[in-house]
Amino acid sequence: MNFFALFLFFISFSTIIFLIANKKNFGVAMLAGSIILAIAIPDKIGNVFIATITDFKVIALMIIVVLIKLLATLLEESGLINGLIEGLESKLSSIGVIIAAPAILGLLPVPGGALLSAPIVKKQGDGMEMKREKQMALNLWYRHIGFMIYPLSTSLILLAGLSGIDVYTLILYQIPIFFISFFVGYVFVYKCKGKGRKKGHGDFLGLIPILLPVAIAIPLSIFLASYFSKEVATYIAYLIAIPIGIFTAIKMSDRRIEMKKGLSPTLALAIFGIMFFKNIINATGITAHLSSYFNFLPSLILIPLVSFIIGILTAHNMAAIAILYPMFSSIMNINLVIIMFISSFFGYLVSPLHLCLAVTYDYFHPKFGDFYKMIIPPAIVVMVIVVILYGIVM
Fold first, then answer.
1. Helix, strand, coil: what percent of the chain each, to 5?
2. First-to-final CA distance of the chain
3. Which of 80, 99, 154, 264 has CA atoms 20 to 30 A from the CA of 291?
4. pTM for this predicted structure
5. Is the pLDDT of residue 140 over 70?
6. Higher local confidence (pLDDT), 210 or 136
C-alpha cells in the first residue's frame, strides 16, 4: 500500500474541507487539494493536467454550469420570477404556496437561493400562525429536494460525469426518493391549517425559460445518443438547450439586463478543480487502498455514514460528490451511487455551514435547536428508507 499517497490524500481532503468551511473559493480549494495530492505523482502530474484541460467532457461541464448560473441570474433580474409567484398566490392555498414557491425557485441553482423564497414563505406562514422554525424548515426542505430529479442540477451532472452513469438514469432511480422525501417532509414538518387561495393576478411565463431547456435537452440527448455516447450526447444537448433558455429569458424581459452579473468564471474553475482532483486520485491508484482501509465496515453502513458526514463538513453537494466518488469508486454500483448521493445531499442540507441555511436563519431568526429538531428526523428517515430500498431490497 502506498501510505505516502494515502497520507497526502487525507491532507488534501482536510485542506479542501478547511478552505470551504472558511468560505474560501470552492475552485481554489479543489486546486489546493489537487496540488497537495499531486506531490505523490511528480512524474505524472503534467500529463494529468493536460489530459484534464483538453478533455471535451470537462470543458463541456465547465461551460454548462456557467450557463446554468447565467440563466438563473437572468430569470431573477428580468422580473419573470415575480409574475410567477403572483400567479401561484392566485391559484394555491397558503400551504400550497409555501411548498411550491421554494420548489420552483429551487430550479434556480444559485448559492443562498433559499433566501429568494423566504419572504413568500414568511408571508404565508405568518398568516397561518406557523412557527418560524417550521417556516425555515419547509423553505429549506422543498427548496432542495427537487435537485434529486432536476436535469439541470449541477450536482447530478457532475455525478454523471464522475460515474459514467447517464444523468437520466440517475434521475429515474431517484424519482421514488423524491416523492418519499416530499411526503416525509410534509408529515414531519407540517401541522397547520391551510388557508384558501387568494384573489390575485400574475402569470406563469417565468416557467418557460426554466422548463424549455429541459424540454429540449431530453429528446435531443436521446437523438444524439445514436451518434455519440450517452454522456457526450447529454453534454451536447445541454450546450444547445440552455442557451435557448437564456435567449428566451432575454427576449421575454422588458428590462435592461447586465449579462456580466450572471457570468461566474469561479464556477468553471470549481468544475475544473473537481475533475483535476478526480484524475489525480485515479493516477495515484489509492482508491482501491481506501476501500480496503475501510472494509471492516459493511458498505451499507460505511457509504451513507461517511457521505452524510462529508456532506455536513463540506456544506456543498458538488464538493462532497467530488471527494466521495473517487474514494469509493472501486466498490460502486448504481445502487451505492444513489445511496452515496442521497446521504451526502442530506448532510449538505442540514449542515450549519450550508449557505442557504445561514442566510435563511438570518432572515427567520428561529430557535436553532427547535429548527434542527424539525429538519434532522425527516432527513434521517429518508436516508434509512433509501438504504433499505436500494441496498437491501433492490
1. 80, 0, 20
2. 34
3. 154
4. 0.74
5. yes
6. 136
